[in-house]
Amino acid sequence: MTRVAVFGSGSWGTAFAMVMADAGCEVTLWGRRPELAEAINTTRVNADYLPGVELPASVRATTDPAEAARDAAFTVLAVPSQTLRANLGEWAPLLAPDTVLVSLMKGVELGTAKRMSEVIEEVAKVSGDRVAVLSGPNLAKEIAARQPAASVVACTDEAVATRLQAACHTPYFRPYTNTDVVGCELGGAVKNVIGLAVGIADGMGLGDNTKGSLITRGLAETTRLGLAMGADPMTFSGLAGLGDLVATCSSPLSRNHTFGTNLGRGMTLQETIAVTRQTAEGVKSCESVADLARRHGVDMPITDTVVDIVHHGKPPLVALKELMSRSAKPERR
After folding, report:
1. Of 147, 144, 140, which is closest to residue 174 (Cα–Cα)?
2. DSSP assignment of 46-91, as one string?
3. Which end of the chain is more exposed for a tag (fewer CB within 10 A), N or C?
4. Distance between CA atoms of 23 and 57, rounded to whole angstroms?
């Protein structure tokens, strides 16, 4: 059996561990808390994140990173994006020599504005052909319920992407390959920011026209940034672009959408953080996405508006009026 290490026992890490086990892999799931690892091994359930979901017998949990990493053909990273650098710094010396590092993370690093694959290459000291990303409309609870879903596995080495595709292909989870790592990562990171914007609109009581406009213009922002960074524009009309964006902006299961809804209802940032149990990546990544856009000279007004609301305390109604009063222009600019 193909051995797989999954670092991160939250909802998505656990759900993807289940996917790979269902595809025939032997999976070791790493988490920090001994009580959670013990509960998973004895009850087959991660009750903290996916209550009621029984994990396959081929998923085993541990708190020992060396045990998780040993002989793994694929090392899956499913931790919050802003913690990746510190965590991977500890794990890198333990990784199997030829393991493929797979990013499930959808963010951009604060300060450096680096994509997660770039952080992985830098910290683990591996070449890009050993780093893959997985991105698409993959809400963890629906995957854990084994509802049909599709995704994209991207790597600059198509053969590596094909290997990963085979390792996680199940009757309910259909992965497609792509070599456009930049586009897939940007689609996943920026959709969280647009998900916040749509959630804010929902919280304000705005309708489907507003949400449809935000989704469409948000996709335009993502595509502009992607083109400036050398991505394939077709990626943004696929699963890692439009597919992921629609799922995030339309589902109450989306953390970013829910976070935005609470802001739109009038809660402060700190109040919203207090009632949010899991990481909403867009909250921090909106600043790093805006930073990335400035570095490439790309205009991203929806992203800038989200930053103003989330981090500068601008009232959503004021921010909306400013966004709508921008000077008119052709659609394709």
Report:
1. 147
2. -TTTSTT-BPPTTEEEES-HHHHHTT-SEEEE-S-GGGHHHHHHHH
3. C
4. 13
Angle at 272 between CA 29 and CA 16, to 5 degrees: 20
* Domain membership of residue 142 as a residue range: 3-179
Answer yes or no: are the C-beta atoms of 201 and 213 closer than 8 Å. Answer: no
pTM exceeds 0.90: yes
CATH number at residue 67: 3.40.50.720
Same domain for 193 and 219, yes or no, is: yes
User: How far is the C-alpha of 123 from the C-alpha of 119, rounded, in Å?
Assistant: 6
| 102, 227: one domain | no
Active site residues: 191
CA–CA dist 208, 189 (Å, integer): 23
Q: pLDDT 10s digit of each residue in the chain, 333 long?
A: 899 999 999 999 999 999 999 999 999 999 999 999 999 999 999 999 999 999 999 999 999 999 999 999 999 999 999 999 999 999 999 999 999 999 999 999 999 999 999 999 999 999 999 999 999 999 999 999 999 999 999 999 999 999 999 999 999 999 999 999 999 999 999 999 999 999 999 999 999 999 999 999 999 999 999 999 999 999 999 999 999 999 999 999 999 999 999 999 999 999 999 988 788 899 999 999 999 999 999 999 999 999 999 999 999 999 999 999 999 889 877
